[in-house]
Structure formats: structure tokens, C-alpha cells
Amino acid sequence: MTPEQAKARIDTLRKELHLHNYNYYVRSDTSFPDYQYDLMIKELQDLELQHPQYGDPNSPTNRVGSDLNLEFESFPHRIPMLSLGNTYSREELQEFDERVRKVTGDEVSYFCELKYDGVAVSLTYRDGSLWRALTRGDGTRGDDVTGNIRTIRSIPLKIHGEGYPAQFEIRGEVIIPIEDFREMNRRRSEMGEPVFANPRNTASGSLKMQNSLEAARRPLDCLFYNVASEQQIFDSHHESLEMARNWGFKVPPFNRLASSLAEVFQFIDHWESARDQLPFEIDGVVIKVDSIALQQELGFTAKTPRWAISYKYKAEQGLSRLNSIDFQVGRTGAVTPVANLEPVRLAGTVVKRASLHNADQVSLLDVRIGDHVFVEKGGEIIPKIVGVSMEHRDQGSVPFRFITHCPECGTLLERKEEEAAHYCPNANGCPPQIKGRIEHFISRKAMDINAAEATIDLLFREGLVRNAADLYNLQFDDLVHLERFAEKSARNLVHSIEASKQVPFQRVLFALGIRYVGETVARKLAEALGDLENLIAADQETLEAVDEIGERIAQSVIAYFRDPLNKSMVNRLKEAGLQFRIASAPVSLSKALEGKSFVISGVFEKHSREELKTMIELHGGRNSGSISAKTDFILAGTNMGPSKYDKALKLGITILSEDEFLSLIS
Ligand code: IVH
What we know:
- By secondary structure, this protein is α+β, with helices and mostly antiparallel strands.
- The protein folds into 6 domains: about 5-65, Helix hairpin bin (Helix Hairpins); about 85-310, D-amino Acid Aminotransferase, Chain A, domain 1, CATH 3.30.470.30; about 315-405, CATH 2.40.50.140; about 430-500, Orthogonal Bundle (DNA polymerase, domain 1); about 505-575, DNA polymerase, domain 1, CATH 1.10.150; about 595-665, BRCT domain (Rossmann fold).
- The strands form 5 sheets. Strands 12, 13, 14, 15, 16, 17 and 18 form a 7-stranded antiparallel β-sheet that branches. Strands 2-11-10-3-9 form a 5-stranded mixed β-sheet.
- β15 and β16 (about 385-390) form a beta hairpin.
- The longest helix has 24 residues, at about 5-25.
- It is globular, with a radius of gyration of 29 Å.
- The relative contact order is 0.08.
- The mean pLDDT is about 90.
């Protein structure tokens, strides 16, 4: 293939891939087969690798993020990012309408939009390519979050269609859809990680992540509501959004033109009751004068446009009596206060329990037993208490005192400095922690042993099972006379336990319930270290060299295997015949890269980045996320960022191609 032919093929592939991304992430059309998409990405990666001169930061191959640290620089907004005047009252909307009509005469069309509850961003496109993405910042300057924004798959890196200005800004709200948010929290709690409080704060935190690989894992999306360019090419706001949609931006379909205030109120009423059915959270609606000429005539106050206003919905709240507070102890020992309420209807369901999160929240709200409390339901899985109605407070009420000892085992609770939760440290003697760990051990994605929660509870009460290893001592005769068991169920359980001995090492590792070791981390550890002995022997540095393993996970693994009770349980599991070795163990090691520090950047031809990281480590080298004076080599593929390249040159670090690296270790 000549360079010209390669260039043509690269262009075609990029164009088609941008289109498939748009169809998939913006139009939710999933008809194009995944494998074909993957083949095209692979072909493009290969071509970009062979022809680095045609590299482009907006290539679809760059959607995966980079694991080098981003430094947020701030830049001015060409057009300031103003906020909106807002109101909760219909009278004020009427006054807004009157002010508008005074300037515009009687005729005015309003464009009604939903007010997306997320984080504002402003994207600049030059010649049809995403050039820079800024946060709102203080309205005049914002932080450059382009690297993280690029990972949001519904955002076009290249504009579709035609007729776009040479340079324009488009503004929207980065959000996390409710279902994705719940799924993400479900996975986090499975890993023993703290769950996120709500989609908006999580979206905001994700945009400011230093590591765009991490941001790429968050289910971010972006909904657009404003196009601004120096050339005025639209007569009306609704046309500009229509055009933005044609260019490939996600503009939600719920907007409406209204020719009277009555129609505006209809829109408001409709979404006030239907907002629960939306896939994302809103906190109100935005009413905008549709004509751009009239917008210009109306102009701005110091902070807000005179042609738009937001009407905010009050969060759906219920008021109910707080009867008592329970404390739940999870498998990791975290203690969560839970309010028991007089049943109250809220957003279509009856709520009886609500989260109080932690001791800080309890004292911040100063909730007391017998208080009437406000309950809210947002994107959270469980409703939460957001305030106390002081007018209902009983004179004789007393401040609630957070417990000092575990409600289940009486142990003095601990609180780590950087964490909000209290923990019961009695991991090996506290019943809900023990049972929680066994339930996790037998769960479907772990050992897949067929036993209900009530069965585990029974086996625990009967003193037959105190940890996972005890399961493998259970005999048919131990079970058959127990209350929940008949011959068949006893035999089934024994069989299911026996069958679990074939479960592969990575799932056994996940089943152990080591804090922060979820399914993916367990697989990475199993693949990189091969067997239990290597894992137990691994020090902090060795563990951190494994892809995706950071300091926190490494420390947790080391602490787990240091504990004598864990050690003896794992030994018993091994003796029982569970799999503690990966099916194919890693190949021989050398010391070719001993003491050398590597940073990997870009896309490679022969091996994945994960494979390369493992190779470095198997040959005695170390992987690091960021370039510093301590870096010995940069292993560079295509699409290595220019700033990294400059930094490497400045520090005099040797840059290796994939082939040079391979010959170094061969
Ligand atoms: S228009 C000059 N439309 O609300 C006015 N804003 O309080 C530009 N927002 O910073 C804003 N949905 O982050 C507009 N449909 C929508 C919106 C919206 C959410 C946010 C945006 C803005 C804030 C203003």
C-alpha cells in the first residue's frame, strides 16, 4: 500500500467509525455488528501505526483514554458562560413573560427545554474537529478537560454533515444516565468500594479525573443546549439545535416550541409529573426566547440573559416521622445508619426506610427519634433524609447519639481518618461480616455454589460453617437432619460445593472477598502472577506493576495474606482442592529490564498495552503512569501525545518503538 492509499483508507475508516459511534451512542442504533466495528478499529490502529505521519488526536482509536496524567490548564471562554436566572414561582414566570413582551411586542415564541442536572461544558470545534473542551469555571475561564471529554463516546470528535462554521462553540451538560449510575454503584459495592452519592457529583468528579483511562470507565454522556459562533448563521434557537443534532450532537428530543405562556405551563406541568420516566435527572426546565434577533434585542444583565429563565422543580419530597434508626453492618464491616419511617408515598412508591449515610450526616442534620423528616428520592437507589421539620419537633427530644459499639458483636467501632464510615474491626468474629463474606464467596460470579441466604444463616447458627473453608467439610449426614433440608436438597448442596472445586483461579481469588479486589482486578492479578504462591510472595512494587493495580489495592492484598486467619483459611481451601493456579502459567522471566522504569504511551501493533506491561514486569522492569526524571524508557506506539513527546525529549528519556522493545527482551 502506498502512503497515499493508506491515507485514503485511514480517512475512510475514520469517517465510517465516527458514523458508527454516532449511530450507536447518539441514536442508540446497535444494528452494526460489534465484531465488524472491532475489525475496523484494529485495521485503523494498524494503519496509524505504520503511517504515524497521519496521526490525529481526534481519531476514533483515541476513545479509550490515556493513562498518563492530565494537567488541567485553564483558558478563557471566547463567549462568557453565563448562568440563568431561576425561579420556583409561576408568578415570576409571568413577570418574565411581561418583561419580554414589553421589548418584543405581543408576538413571541418560547423554546422550552429540560434543565439537565449535570456539569456544564463548552466545546470548541475548528474545521469540524473537536479542538478544546472547557468546564464552566468562573464563567470567564474554565479548565481544559479535552482529554476526558474525548472519552465520552456520544460526543462527535468530527462533525457529521455540512454547513458548520469554521469555528464554533457548543455547550451542554455532562451527565450520567440513571440506569448506568445504578449499575456502576452495584459493581462498586460488589468490590467493597464506597458507592457514589448521586449522578451529578459523580459526573463532575469524573470530568476532573487526572487519568482519562479512569474517566473512560465512567458512563458519562453529554446533552447539548446551545450553539454559539461569531458568524450568526441561525435565525432561531430551535434551528440551531436542530442543526447541532444533524452535526451529530446529542440533543434530547423533549424540547418544545410554545407560542404562549399557557403552553409553557403545560410543558412545565407535563415534565413535573413525567420526570421519573426520563433516563437522566433534571432539576427543572429552561424557557428561552426562540428568535435570535429578539434575544439580541433583549440582551443581558451582568450575570444572566434577559431572554431566558429557568423554572426549577422542587425535589420530590415526603414528610414522615422517624420511628427509629437501625445500624447495618456490611461484609466489609462498614456500619450504615438506616432510618425506619412511618410509610410515606414518594415518586410512585411507598418508602419505609431511608439512608442516613454516616455519623457526619446524622449530626449535620441533627435528626432525632420522633422528628418529622424530609425524604427525597433522586438517582440514588435508596431514598435519603435531607432535613428535619423543626416546627414538628417535640420539645422533649434529645440529640441522637451515634453508636460507639457494633450492634451485632459489641466491638468498639473504628473510624479511619480519610473515611466517613465507622467500621467494626472484628472481621473474624462479627456475624454479619462472616455471613456476608460466605454469601459473597458462594455467589454466582464467584464460586457459584447453590445456597440461599437463609441456608448460610442456618449453617452459621448451627455452628457448621464459620468461614468459606468449612463449606468443604460439610457432609451429607451433617445436612440431612437440619430443618431446611431433605435428602435431595442436602445432596444438591454437597454436589454444588464439590463442583465449585473446578472454578478457575481468578474467580476463587474474587470469591475471597479481598477489599477492592473485584472481578476484573482478580483476573488481572491471577493472569499476571499465575498462582497463589506468587501472589502471597508479591511485594507492593510487584503488585503495583500489574495493570490496573494501584497502591490501595496492593496494600489491601498484602494485608489480606498477612492475616494468619486468612492464611489458614486459604491453606484449607487449597487442601480441599480449589484451583489456586491459572490454567496456563506465565512464561519464563529474565532480568533484562531489571531496575528500569517504563512509561507506555500510544497504540501498538503486535501486543496490547496490557501484554506489554506484563512483559516489562516479567523481565524485571517497572511500569509507571507518568513521565518523570526517574523514567528510563518510554515505550511509544502511534498517537503518543505531542506534550509527552516534548517532555521526554526535555528529560532526555530514551523512546523505544515496539520492535526495539521486543529486541531488548528477546
Ligand atoms: S442555557 C446563557 N439550557 O443550567 C444561558 N442551561 O443555570 C445558558 N443547564 O450553566 C444556559 N440544562 O449548566 C441552558 N437546557 C439547558 C440547560 C442548562 C442545564 C445548566 C447549564 C447552565 C445552568 C444555568
